Amino acid sequence: MEVKLDGKRALVTGAGKGFGREIAKRIAECGAETFALSRTQEDLDSLKSEVPNINIINVDLQDWDKTREEVRKVGHIDLLVNNAGVICRIPFIDTPKEEIDRLYDVNVKAVFNVSQACPFAWFEYYLDSILFLFEVIAKRMIEKGKGGSIVNISSIASRTVLPGASAYCSTKGAVDNITRCMALELGPHNYGVFSIRVNSVNPTFVITNMTKGQEHTVSSILERTPMGRFPEIKDVVNAVVFLLSDESGMISGESLRVDGGVGVY
Q1: Is 263 inside any structural domain?
Q2: Which are the contacts of 130, defined by CB distance < 8 A and separation ≥ 6?
Q3: Which keywords accompany this UniProt record (predicted)?
Q4: Of the candidates 19, 260, 22, the residue with the CA atom closest to the CA atom of residue 160
């Protein structure tokens, strides 16, 4: 299936590496004007050299006010991918406050912040600051009256707990519930003339720079995977692009597992 996103404007967070980088590249290939956000300038520079027509935004999502300021500069957005995420593998009893704060700042609060700040063409809505990204972008969507599509990168860890990852698993459970709440509140039954769809993509373990070297820690997941292998980055990218596109026009509030079938257990 060939997906066309011509005439759309898209923002991808965590676009310097891994999922986000490949998602941003694919969206640009599909014809959308693409904005790639990352805290690492070096990653953005290499992405820009690889795909010259991509716009880059250097900001740390843990800086709430600066993130909101930079996102608002983008202008109208039709498509948003809240991809940025961090993980830590520390036993529950030893997880320090600093790590909990870091994971919630990036994995959860940044979803609120960016979504709220993004110019998704909408009137001033009463969203709380929990989804900063959602707030900024969704408001613009409503103001412009065109609607759009938001995809949050979650994980099977939202439903399948992993030992030594209690903080991470809890953030992904939050992302799934945020996704459903946003789909309910931003759907066309509230606004009539436009629709903002919100879905999540929930991959199993995928080998990226962030997860490389951790394969042994998830061997039990692979043993329970009917397809007998972990997905590749392209499998996640394909799911995201489908949910962004008009081909999924009646899909909202869903968590799409990309897990080789392990979710059947």
Answers
A1: no
A2: 108, 109, 112, 178
A3: NADP, Oxidoreductase
A4: 260
Query: Does residue 109 belong to any structural domain of this protein?
Result: yes
* 165 falls within a domain: yes
Q: What is the pLDDT of residues 63-101, one digit of tens each?
A: 999 999 999 999 889 999 999 999 888 999 999 999 999
Side-chain-side CA neighbours of 240 within 13 Å: the count stands at: 30
Task: Count up the domains in the chain and report the number.
Answer: 1
CATH of residue 106: 3.40.50.720
Indicate if 168 belongs to the active site: yes
Q: Is 242 left (phi over 0), alpha (psi -120 to 50) or beta?
A: alpha
Residue 2 belongs to some domain of the structure: no
Tell me which of 8, 172, 191, 265 is the catalytic residue: 172
pTM of this structure: 0.88
8, 109, 168, 191: the active-site residue: 168
